[in-house]
Design brief:
This protein is an alpha+beta fold and 108 residues long. The protein is 31% helix and 18% strand.
């Protein structure tokens, strides 16, 4: 059996990502109540769904997807969750959005 294990090829599935609908509701609340017209970058976190327990307000597939949920703005990770740090770039107008160097944001 040990000989067979040494010849196995490790395969990785590409990571898929999704934004939970409740994230957009929370972002609107944070934008109105906290960020307002601020254009500061905001630290957020995503969660690997294979490490999450499903809650009543969110859906989470257990396929290893990266989810951005309504708790993305909380500093404390959900119990037992594998978190992935990220940054929210907040803009206030479509012109500001169009002016962003999106390639640099994705690479940096």
């Amino acid at each position: 059996m040990a000989e067979h294990a040494a010849t196995e090829v490790v395969r990785f599935q590409p990571l898929s990502s999704a934004v939970d609908v409740m994230f957009w509701h929370k972002l609107a609340q944070v934008k109105l109540d906290v960020l307002k017209l601020s254009q500061n970058e905001v630290p957020i976190q995503g969660h690997l769904s294979g490490a999450l327990l499903s809650t009543g307000t969110t859906r989470a597939a257990r396929d290893g997807s990266l989810w951005v949920r309504e708790d993305a703005f909380e500093e404390r990770a959900a119990s037992g969750a594998a978190t992935v740090p990220g940054t929210l770039v907040n803009v206030n107008t479509i012109e500001e959005f169009r002016g962003l160097d999106k390639k640099q944001l994705l690479e940096g």
